[in-house]
Known about the structure:
Blueprint: H1 32-38, E1 73-79, H2 84-88, H3 95-101, E2 106-108, E3 111-112, H4 119-127, E4 140-142, E5 147-149, E6 154-158, E7 169-172, H5 183-190, E8 199-203, H6 210-213, E9 216-217, E10 223-224, E11 236-237, E12 243-244, E13 252-253, H7 271-274, H8 277-283, E14 284-286, E15 289-291, E16 300-302, H9 304-308, E17 318-322, H10 346-362, H11 365-368, E18 372-378, H12 419-422, E19 447-450, E20 459-461, E21 465-466, H13 467-477, E22 483-484, E23 488-490
Parallel strand pairs: 1-17, 1-18, 2-20, 3-21, 8-14, 8-17, 12-13, 22-23
Antiparallel strand pairs: 2-19, 4-5, 5-11, 6-7, 9-10, 15-16, 18-19
Helix pairs in contact: 4-13
Amino acid sequence: MSDHLxxxxxxxLGSPARRPRRRTPAxxxxxxxxxxxxxxxxxxxxxxxxxxxxxGRGPGTVRAAVPPGxxxxxxxxxxxxxxxxxxxxxxxxxxYLNRTLVPQGELLSDYHATxxxxxxxxxxxxxxxxxxxxxxxxxxxNLTTFAGSFNDIAPGTPDPNPATEPxxxxxxxxxxxxSVQTIGNQLSALDxxxxxxxxxxxxxxxxxxxxxxxGTADPLGGTDCAHPTQVTGLAADGTNSAQGPNATGxxxxxxxxxxxxxxxxxxxxxxxxxxxxxxxxxxxxxxxTVTVGTGGRPDTxxxxxxxDFARASTTPAFSFVTPNVCDDGHDASCAGTNTDxxxxxxxxxxxxxxxxxxxxxxxxxxxxxxxxxxxITTDEGAVGDGSAVAGELPGPGNTNPGYSPLxxxxxASYGGxxxxxxxxxxxxxxxxxxxxxxxxxxxxxxxxLLNARWITPGxxxxxPYNHYxxxxxxxxxxxxxxxxxxxxxxxxxxxxxxxAPFGPDVFNARPAGGCESAAGDRRGRPGGxxxxxxxxxx
Length: 538
């Protein structure tokens, strides 16, 4: 959802694991920082092609700029609701992210989200579906009570204009028909022998309270494929507010902490995933837990991600990692606790999560051999920043992907104000959608890319990209070359004509063997500096 809201606010906020089966600059309203950031969105992410960007995989198709098979694993980690300046700027409180991780990766300084508020951005990253008016409101259909919903998109029919709405479905709602695929479905289609490409969603806290979250019991704890049970395509969503013993405001007081929310788990919104109970349970699993080491002892991990990432052969081809709403920074104060055991959320809480989980991921065999790409970004920017990269298509039935009806309804809880007004955003008439094209995107968020072989550490890249171009890149890297909205393996808006994937500007190093980069930076050995998976300074 939107940036941390004052209370009251809408309710938002061991044993071996089972193997998977194998726009131009926008008018930015109100906030001075967002206005400054919007000026960065002036260069188009759309291009007819880039020199050297096609490593020989199909005439006329620009592919991500590494040799086929060089990157076999992609990990995407979404934090919540932060602008580029907040996350990566000089005053950022995310000290581990900026002092330890940024120096060993590549910072995309003109990377944009595709909508507001949360759910639509998560969906875009795995399916290429553009925001509709319900996904733009985090699937809240009652803007008086702010109750969550889990309703099928109706009518849910393919849009008849593939040139302007590639691979999109028409209608309003949040749950997509079985005809709409995700990158997970694409990888499953390639897995003909049951041993090839795999995918997993790792959702922290999912199933901590099964009666709240749903799903089927997981042998390592929690539940798999947790989502509301529909009746005739409709269901309520009871996970919008985190629960726990430290709850404040609209959070729920409970002895057991459960800070999982459905709206940050994109795969459960697709019938192509959830209609197969066993299939979904194999692929949508709890993250696991970390026991923080004390007295110089290392952290210890339990659960699916730690087990899967222990060997390259069991590391999924595509992993989407969803921290809970304390650890992703959504909630400013946590109903439970963050990874360090305090109730501080926001970027401080998110940074704490990264400082414990990233050494595990960076120390995995798949990362150390150079075959893993990691993307760390935020789902959306500041709510007053509706900027987009030039050329982002808005999708059917929604002329302003960066506008959220949820934030523009006057509420008695806020003295008759809208949430836009409470958050200091000016220039939007309460209850009235702005003119078409006013808010074309989700704002400037930035992204950090990490790879031990194909990225030069410590570089900054100002080429404009967004969630759709990232999805296109992941599909290319993982060998998906057929199907999709363009017939070349790209889903939805990722198949938009001319959309460029990550090119040689991103993959700007050539390996010299082992974990060395073109810069001669030895990254394959533990050295105590945080660059090869061992904990670094915070």
